[in-house]
Amino acid sequence: MEQQGMTNTIEIIQPGPLTTVQDAGRYGFQKYGIGPSGVMDLRAYEAANFLVGNMQGEAVLEATLMGPTIRFAQETIFALTGADMMPSLDGQSVPMNRALCAKAGQTLRLQMAVEGCRGYLAFAGGIDVPRVLGSRSTNLKCALGGFQGRKLAAGDILPLSDGMPGSESYLQELATRSVTAVPYPHEVTVRVIAGPQQDAFTRAGWRTFLHTPYQVSVNSDRMGCRLEGAVIEAKHGTDIISDGIVNGSIQVTAGGLPIILLADRQTTGGYAKIATVLSEDLPKLAQVRPGDVLRFTLCPKGFR
Amino acid sequence: MKGIRFLRAGDAAMVAELGDAIDESINHRVQLLSAWLEDNPPVGVKEVLPTFRSVTIFYDPQVTSFQRLGKSIRHARIDEALSDAGQGRLVEIPCCYGGTYGEDLPELARLKGLSEREIVSIHSQREYLVYMLGFLPGFVYLGGLDERIHAPRLETPRVRIPAGAVGIGGSQTGVYPLDSPGGWRLIGRTPLRMYDLQRAEPFLCQAGDRIRFVPIDEAEYRMMERQVAEGNQPSGYRMQQT
């Protein structure tokens, strides 16, 4: 039964280790020191909004390694994309990558990701938290945006916008929408463009960077994918006068190990950046897990 | 604009580098270029991020390209068009020095062989250029601190420094925009908020502005703090276009 005039909500029963509200990011404020945040895996995020019939840009939940358990206050159309967290609705297993309908009072439970690292949960209508500086993304470092500027906790109640709930024919229409699940292998190769500070590194350093595998460190997070492996040789250290950082900048720290800066990156940094990951390959980095193996390849080949 | 190196920063951004030093005249050209990019954005430019000696330009690769953007910047008559613009504003930042507001001031005075009063006078005499913002929302990177009051950071950083704290770290001075950990030596505090989302203009300063610290006493601090809390601009506080 639909309760007219009442805001639909979801309640967080178990939050998982790091579940946040995110959208496509907060742009326009990097010059004031506020990074964009936003979803790590743009491809899975756009797929989730598409499946539930949202306009692109609506806010979703991003879960890391282990998904949340949530209860629906009213009938709600939702979809899950990205890492497969073995979803079940009131104990019945439900599929990923398609629109589903929960009834009022039903509980959706997500578990450990069997594949990949980040799962996305979109609701028809989107999550109705206020926009801060134009975006609903949670910026954990600045404690702004999203739900009270923080990761979700048990007992949080999130408002949803009206997503035409209760309409059987609407769900049938959405059922015609499909997205193809992509595999999340434990060894990935990402394409990079040399620069901006490619000249800060020796030929040997470049050889190391392109021809040895790196392991994803357990210290990786939304700020960056930290890597372990062979040290990249620089000509005269890797300190530079701080300059701008972009999504996918590969910084080489004083210790010679690369860090790929991602959604929660700082806006500027003082380490040389050997290369930058191609936009199209960034979603792969959102889905690698600690211990996975990463290789870099130059794009176009040999161009630096 | 001449004398620019264009560097690739992936497939959706580029860096326009105007020099390789922290230098006022290089940074002035950074401000000219970023002001031009914001006022007359070439098609496809999404966001502009000025730093010490370069501008990172975020663009939509579906609309423009590294080559095309570089060309339009190289051909733009930026120096001529903006030679008297882009000078920034002078922002006065009232600061209550010493006491509980700047608890490291006595130690700093001892370290530098100066009186507290001398340190305050040296610190508040100069105008400091805002080279760029970064690190935290509204955090200003200032240049031009007098060498007589350069001081190493604290060996043990503080876990929590209150928003508004004015400090010295190495050859830099600045204001903490938020409560945060930090290792700078605290010499005073401003009642102004460098960053306040409740304000129509959330950020007090922008790159290219100049800052001057104006000494105030505790009574003035309290009064201004109350005015700020009520959402008003404190009396005696000025911001001017130069």
How would you portray this structure in words?
The complex is a heterodimer of chains A (304) and B (242). With 304 residues, chain A is mainly beta. Chain A has four helices and 20 strands. Chain A has helices spanning 42-51, 168-174, 203-211, 282-286; strands spanning 8-14, 19-22, 60-64, 69-72, 76-84, 88-89, 92-93, 100-102, 107-109, 115-123, 157-160, 187-194, 214-216, 224-228, 239-244, 249-252, 258-261, 268-271, 273-277, 293-298. In chain A, strands 12-19-16-17-14-13-20 form a seven-stranded mixed beta barrel. Chain A has a six-stranded antiparallel beta sheet with strand order 7-6-9-4-1-11, with no helix packed on it. In chain A, a hairpin with a 5-residue loop joins strand 16 and strand 17 (258-261). Chain A is elongated and about 65 Å long. In chain A, 52% of the residues are buried. The model of chain A has no long low-confidence stretch (mean pLDDT 94). By secondary structure, chain B is of the alpha+beta class. Chain B is built from six helices and 14 strands. Helices cover 25% and strands 29% of the residues of chain B. Chains A and B meet through strand 15 and strand 19 of A and strand 2, strand 3 and strand 4 of B.
Layout of secondary structure:
The complex is a heterodimer of chains A (304) and B (242).
Chain A: E1 8-14, E2 19-22, H1 42-51, E3 60-64, E4 69-72, E5 76-84, E6 88-89, E7 92-93, E8 100-102, E9 107-109, E10 115-123, E11 157-160, H2 168-174, E12 187-194, H3 203-211, E13 214-216, E14 224-228, E15 239-244, E16 249-252, E17 258-261, E18 268-271, E19 273-277, H4 282-286, E20 293-298
Parallel strand pairs in A: 12-20
Antiparallel strand pairs in A: 1-4, 1-11, 2-3, 3-10, 4-9, 5-8, 5-10, 6-7, 6-9, 12-19, 13-14, 13-20, 14-17, 15-18, 16-17, 16-19
Chain B: E1 5-8, E2 13-17, H1 24-39, E3 45-50, E4 54-59, H2 66-75, H3 78-81, E5 89-97, H4 105-112, H5 116-125, E6 128-133, E7 140-143, E8 158-161, E9 165-169, E10 172-175, E11 180-182, E12 185-189, E13 210-215, H6 218-229, E14 239-241
Parallel strand pairs in B: 5-13
Antiparallel strand pairs in B: 1-2, 2-4, 3-4, 5-12, 5-14, 6-7, 6-13, 8-11, 9-10, 9-12
